[in-house]
Amino acid sequence: MKIVIISGLSGSGKSVALNVLEDSGYYCVDNLPAPMLVDLVSLLRQQGYAHVAVAVDMRSGDSIAALPRQLDLLERQPIKIKLIFFNARTDILIQRFSETRRRHPLTDENITLDEAIRREREALSSLATLGHHIDTSALQPNTLRTFIREFITDNHPTSRLTLLFQSFGFKHGIPLDADLVFDVRCIPNPHYDPHLRDLTGQSPEVIRFLEAQPNVPKMIIDIRSFLDTWLPVYMRDNRAYLTVAIGCTGGQHRSVYFAETLAAYFHDLTHVLVRHRSLTEAAAAHTRK
């Protein structure tokens, strides 16, 4: 039996994820009080459900504090569990609530939206480290849907650790979900070549440009050596997820190339995912042509 637990801040994308899981054949339960999780799973196992997704968050109040204990009980059973914790910057969450005119579950006549988000963030802080952390601040819904589909596809079932390589642009801020951050802004920037400016780090022309730079293979080897050394340590520490963020100025050329190259190297060693946070849909479409 495979179970995906969804939690995180209100407005951070949990509903989008639950819809993707339902479309992927998961039996989905939304807004479940945390103390009921073990009993629900037991019932669904008896009824023969093999794929289940459950959203547990602050809508059920303080009972969310029971979730770690419930997860601990489930991990003692022959069940494969993945927990996804969704997060986003406060200014982004305020903007989303303003656009949709939805009420935050913690707001009332005495609490502003900003205060409600702060209280929710504090209440959920202990859960953020229990599973895979996704920062949706800069993600479009279609990109998030793709990430969720990749996350639930286990192409390396013998591995207990999912290694995520994530490119980003420093001008958009460092991702909240990064465990390790590498800065490749010291590498010559293809942006200043007019023929490469509109391309991405996935384009053959940009790849040739970067691979001609003497420091690029050196940095690739250094990052690869660091991960080769420490990845087994993270695995022995029973880490289920490790997010390696590679940043350049705009997140379009250098960081994308580095993330793709490193992911290809580690693909046979563990379950690997790749995300490009700052690529626009237009740039990605141009690359695929």
From TrEMBL:
Domain RapZ C-terminal: 162-279
Residue numbers binding ATP: 8-15
Keyword field: ATP-binding, GTP-binding, Nucleotide-binding
Binding site for GTP: 57-60
GO MF annotation list: ATP binding; GTP binding
SUPFAM superfamilies given in the database record: P-loop containing nucleoside triphosphate hydrolases
Domain of life, per lineage: Bacteria
Pfam families: PapZ_C, RapZ-like_N
Residues of the RapZ-like N-terminal domain: 1-155
Family matches, as PANTHER family: RNASE ADAPTER PROTEIN RAPZ
Protein name: Uncharacterized protein
UniProt source species: Nitrosomonas mobilis
